[in-house]
Amino acid sequence: MTLAATDTPLVASHDAVLLDLDGVVYRGGEAVPGAVEALREVREARLAFLTNNANRPPEAVAEHLAQLGLTPSVEDIVTSAQAIAGVMSHDLAAGAVVLAIGGDGLREALRARGLVPTGDRHAAGLAAVVQGYTPDLGWRDLAEAAYAVQSGLPWYASNTDLTIPTAEGIAPGNGALVHAVRLATGQEPVVAGKPYAPLFEETMERLAPASPLMVGDRLDTDILGARRAGITSLFVLTGVNTLADVVNAVADVHPDFVGADLAALHDAHPAVVIADRVAHCGSARVELRDRTLTVVTEGTSTETLRAIVGLGWACRAESDVHLSVNETIDA
Fold first, then answer.
1. PANTHER family under this entry (predicted)?
2. What's 240-284 look like in SS3?
3. Which whole-number Å values give the CA distances from 100 to 77, 172, 199, in the listed order?
4. Catalytic residue among 15, 20, 91, 290
5. Active-site residue, from 22, 141, 220, 261
6. What is the pLDDT of residues 161-172, one digit of tens each?
7. 252 is catalytic
8. H or E element: which one contains 316?
9. pLDDT in tens, 255-280
10. Helix (H, G, I), strand (E, B), or coil: what is residue 30?
11. Domains and CATH numbers, the chain
C-alpha cells in the first residue's frame, strides 16, 4: 500500500471529519497543542468525535470540549458506551437488568437504550454483564465481572484499548482490565469500540456522510477500524503510536495519510516519488542508510513525514526488516 495524495488541503475532500479524542484532541484534561486551532479552521466539513473511552456521558465530553474552545453538540459525540448499549439492546429484552462495570457514561448509555444497569451481581433477573473504563475501577469490580461471566451470562465490553494516553503519560486502558477478566474466565466479550464495527455504524447512521475522514493516533483501533469500515484515515503523531510504529506496521493498519498533528488537515499531501531507496515529497528528501530512514532535506512537516513513511513501506515490501528513523520532526 502507498500513501494517498492530494494537491489541495486534505479536509477539502471530505464532508465529515471523525476524530478520536484521547491523544488526538486532548490528553487528559488538556488540549493537544494546536488541536483546537486546527479544528476551528475547519469550515465546510462536519466534526464528529468518536471515543473508545466509555467513562463519561456525551454531555460531559461536549462540556470538556467547550472548555477547550470548541463548540460541539451532544449529537457530535459518539462513545463506545453508546455503541455497546446499542448492540446489547438488540440482543437483550427491553428492561433487561445488566451488571455494569464502568462509569456514568456506560450506565447512562444503557438506560437510554431501555436497559437497567446495576452494580449488584445478585440482582434478580440479571441478564448480562458489560465492562467499560473508569479510573475508579478496582479489583472487586473485576472479580464481580469474572464471577458473572463464569456463571454463564453473556459478556460485553465497550472497547479493548490496552492503553490510554493521559497528560502524565501512557496508562492502562480498558483492554487491560478486560484482559484480566478474560484470563480469569477463558471467555471473550462482544466488543463495540474501534476497531470493531458498532462504533463506526453508530456514527454513519447519525451523520450519513458521503466522504468521511477518520483521524486517530492508534493504528490498532482508529486506523484498523477505519480500514475495515472503508473510511479514509489520517494518522497523527500526538498520541500512542510513533512514527517508527507506522513505518514498520503491517499493511492492515496502514493509514491513507500521515501528519504531525491536526494541522495536517489543512495541508496538501503531495505524492511520494521513490527511486533507488530515495524518496522525494515536495521539498523533502529521505534516504535509506543501513536500515535507517534518514532525512537529508526537510520539507514541511507533512512532506517530510510522507517521504519517511512512503520510503519505509516501499523498502519493507521488498524486505520485511525492522527500520529505524532518523528525523527531526517535532511531534
1. 4-NITROPHENYLPHOSPHATASE-RELATED, D-GLYCEROL 3-PHOSPHATE PHOSPHATASE
2. CCCHHHHHCCCHHHCCCEEECCHHHHHCCECCCEEECCEEEECCE
3. 21, 20, 19
4. 20
5. 22
6. 998 888 788 889
7. no
8. helix 301-318
9. 999 999 999 999 999 999 999 999 99
10. strand
11. 10-52+197-326 (3.40.50.1000), 80-191 (3.40.50.1000)
